[in-house]
Specification:
By secondary structure, the chain is an alpha/beta fold. It has helices at residues 28-38, 40-43, 56-65, 75-83, 129-138, 154-163, 174-181, 191-194, 206-211, 213-231, 236-247, 251-264, 273-285, 303-313; strands at residues 11-18, 46-53, 70-74, 88-93, 100-104, 118-121, 147-150, 168-172, 186-189, 200-205.
């Protein structure tokens, strides 16, 4: 395969990303774009091509069909498809989840008041759905005690909450401050109830990884070098300048995106068996997969990540 500009010494590796293409704090392409700008991927013999997909379903299908070699997305989506027999595995962590807060409508004062009500989430495969269930479970409410209805993105859920169409939902960022200013009750932070919980991961097809182990390790190595560079505070000004150029942002917007992205980066792309086990346990509780034996090794293979970490330390 030919790399950027027709160079024969670079291998083109395609990475699926749910479009449209954005460089915000939620995007795995942020790490990749900066890594390409700094030459981390090129030094590993790679040029990364971002392949846009419509949604998580088409991204999974594209990964299975070989439209691209790597996909970054929510672990709940990947576990769901692997349970259906998709020949995929997760090889490294992607990002931390949002910092969620449970907010109720005006008539709700305590979590116990949510019994028998309708709650809102972005959908069963959204990053807020399982954390909502896990938090409520820790507060003594089982999924049988309430109904969760698909309610769109965080902005739309907030509007539904203000109208009283849903009794509570998870909000994040400035939406929580808006809710407080609107007099809505803050029912608690989600993080203390999550523990070890893997929100998102990078995945590949097993047959491709077996046939191209060096390519996968090269991608991981470049990605980790990019993450480490991004997490170094001394590089902050360089990062924001790159973002201003790449995304045509002003200095203030670049600084905001930088702060949000740094908060969500996982040092060394950490992915753990315990974090996946927690995801699977909540999926069973939510009725998304059948009860039974679900060893983390069914979904993850950390040997590639481990070998790359060792090589970077030596």
């Amino acid at each position: 395969m030919l790399g950027e500009g027709g160079r024969s010494d670079l291998v083109r590796l395609r990475v699926g990303k749910i479009g449209p293409f954005t460089l915000d704090e939620k995007s795995p392409s942020w790490t990749i774009e900066v890594g390409m700008e700094k030459g981390f991927f090129q030094s590993e013999g790679l040029v990364v091509e971002m392949v846009l997909t419509q949604d998580f379903t088409t991204q999974i299908e594209g990964l299975i069909q070989g439209d691209f070699e790597v996909g970054h997305q929510a672990t709940v989506q990947l576990v769901t498809e692997i349970e259906k027999g998709a020949p995929l595995f997760m090889f490294m962590g992607d990002r931390r989840g949002p910092i969620f807060t449970l907010v109720g409508t005006s008539v709700i004062r305590f979590v116990a008041d949510l019994r028998g009500t309708r709650l809102g989430s972005s959908g069963v495969t959204g990053t807020d759905h399982l954390p909502l269930i896990k938090m409520l479970s820790g507060k003594g409410l089982s999924p049988k005690d309430y109904t969760i209805v698909p309610s769109g993105n965080v902005l739309y859920r907030y509007h539904l909450l203000k109208r009283g169409a849903i009794a509570a939902t998870l909000l994040s960022g400035d939406m929580v401050l808006d809710a407080e200013n609107d007099g809505l009750p803050i029912l608690g932070a989600v993080d203390p109830h999550l523990g070890e919980f893997s929100f998102s991961a990078a995945a590949a097809r097993r047959d491709w990884a077996d046939q191209h182990p060096d390519l996968l390790r090269a991608y991981i190595r470049a990605y980790l070098r990019s993450v480490r560079w991004l997490l170094d505070p001394s590089n902050r000004d360089q990062v924001t300048k790159i973002m201003q150029t790449k995304a045509k942002l002003d200095a203030e917007a670049a600084a905001r995106i930088y702060e949000g992205a740094i908060e969500r980066l996982l040092p060394d792309a950490e992915l753990t068996a315990g974090g996946i086990r927690s995801v699977v346990d909540v999926m069973v509780l939510a009725g998304l997969i059948e009860p039974g034996e679900h060893p983390p090794q069914k979904y993850i293979d950390l040997t590639f990540l481990s070998s790359v970490r060792n090589s970077l330390e030596n």
